[in-house]
Amino acid sequence: MAHFILPTSPEQLSHAYLIEGEHAAAVFAARDLARRVLVDLGGADGARFDRGAVADLSEVTEEKIAIDRVRALTADMYRKPLEGAYRVAMLWHADLMRDEAQNAMLKSLEEPPSYFVWILVAENAARLLPTIRSRCRTVTLETAPLVSALDDALLERLAKLVARAFAGEGAVVFDRRDTLEPFVEQKEATLHTLMALLSAALFKVQTGRAEGAPAAWREAVETVAASASLGQVLLALDQVAELEGLMAVNVNALLAFEHLFSHLGREI
Fold it and tell me: Are 125 and 133 in contact (CB under 8 A)?
């Protein structure tokens, strides 16, 4: 999963971002950015953000964004934040907007209120008008193809374990620790595979379509996508990203994986 350097202070914050890359990865990065703005810099409640309950985040997830929707967003941006210092509007498919819808948001991108941040997600930024691109801080993500160091049998087992965890059955790992042993032995490959698998499942959940995954991945992606809601997948991606950081400081891998699968996609 590709990441970029998030702002660490209000002085580093831009009020219009354009995140370009493979769609699931770009949405994940956009939500990381939104969380940084609203929670870390703005003071909103992190648990509410993770539940999708922060009033100051507007997410436009539909592919066809009508000009009336854009006008409503630009009019609404002058409403003051309710829970913290900032408000964020995120468009998941900004590059699919028609030219008239893009033109309708030009002034709001150029002169937003000091408390407002736009985050535009695009698979192909070239589809956006030059005037839109010039008003945004552009971040281009590079993502790895869907490949795994895990063999096909382990990939299948991992997908089924993720599906059981999403269904609230992740505690099975406490009953049979041997379930996790091959993943602990290949912890780096497992974490990489989990991120790629969840990213592909996110795309499937939100669009109903599968990415151009290799044949070995398709069944695994379908298994995960069929077991989870959009919110569960997004939260799981955050949880795995956090675990990657913990693994870097040599935490007990077995206990860490037990905790992950016991709470995957659910608030602790």
Answer: yes
